[in-house]
Amino acid sequence: MTASLDFDAHLARESARFAKALRAAPPDARVPTCPDWDVDDLLWHLAKVQAFWATIVRDKIIDVAQAEQVDAVRPDDRSGLFAYFDRSSRGLQTVLAATRDDGTPAWTWSTDQTVGFIRRRQAHEALIHRLDAELTAGLRTPMDPALCADGVVEVLGVMYGGAPPWGTFAPVDGRTVQLAATDTGDSWLVALGRFTGIDPADDAAVDESDIRVLDRDSGDGAARISGTAADLDCWLWHRPTLRPIERTGDTNVLAEFSAVVASPIN
């Protein structure tokens, strides 16, 4: 799935839809999926994120010390925010289009330190925040099934299961969940287990429930979670689904998996 997706095209399309939705939103609207934010906060968030990653790629930043120097000043009014977003989004799209080798080194917060990681991550960032923008404006338009199917494995493998290298993941036998996208035919088998290690930031011992994506086609799990690719992607991102997610199988496994993916991500 990932290899066949044009993430640059998705980034451009979702970013344009994001801006269009926010222009249609009431000026004083709150963001229902991010209740601490209003329209301007959501606009600033994605503008700042896209500007940051454009700088990382354009300036060939490869270490955290350089990345920490990248900063931005929030414009004072909405017209300034929209202008800043337009520049940021255009800048990110331009520099990614000019950097075709996904293996090009670039600093990221992940163990995957490549432009390819940024390209994929930012397409999904724009998709989810486009949905936030539409819900703020009282709208909801379709989400691309193929992009959402990739979003499922990305959120499972990167946002939840992307544990740092200083620890160890140990799966627990028999505790697996199959996630199945009913519209695209994709499925993923996820192992539940424990992540343990010593966090070098504060020397604290860590021992917590965690997950790992095993194989998209490696058979049934002890439990099954199914829905359309878009609904699964939305559910994992704590966004409202169009239809209920179906859950069957071992209730203890379902509860443990649900607890792991209940962790807040934005």
Read across the widest sheet, the strand sequence of neighbours is 3-2-1-4-5
Question: What is the name of the CATH architecture of the largest domain?
Answer: Up-down Bundle
Contiguous helical run count: 8
Helix content: 40-55%
Write structural notes for this entry.
- The chain has 266 residues and is α+β, with helices and mostly antiparallel strands.
- The protein folds into two domains: 135 residues, Four Helix Bundle (Hemerythrin (Met), subunit A) (Up-down Bundle), CATH 1.20.120; 116 residues, Nonspecific Lipid-transfer Protein, Chain A (2-Layer Sandwich), CATH 3.30.1050.
- Strands 3-2-1-4-5 form a five-stranded mixed beta sheet.
- Helix 6 runs parallel beside helix 7.
- The radius of gyration is 19 Å and the shape is globular.
- The mean pLDDT is 95.
List the helices and strands and how they pair.
Blueprint: H1 7-24, H2 39-58, H3 64-67, H4 78-98, H5 115-136, H6 145-160, E1 167-181, E2 187-199, E3 204-215, E4 223-227, H7 229-236, E5 246-249, H8 251-260
Helix pairs in contact: 1-4, 1-5, 2-4, 2-5, 6-7
Structure summarized in a few sentences:
The chain has 266 residues and is an alpha+beta fold. It is built from eight helices and five strands.
Give keywords.
266 residues, alpha+beta, Four Helix Bundle (Hemerythrin (Met), subunit A), Nonspecific Lipid-transfer Protein, Chain A, 2 domains, 45% helix
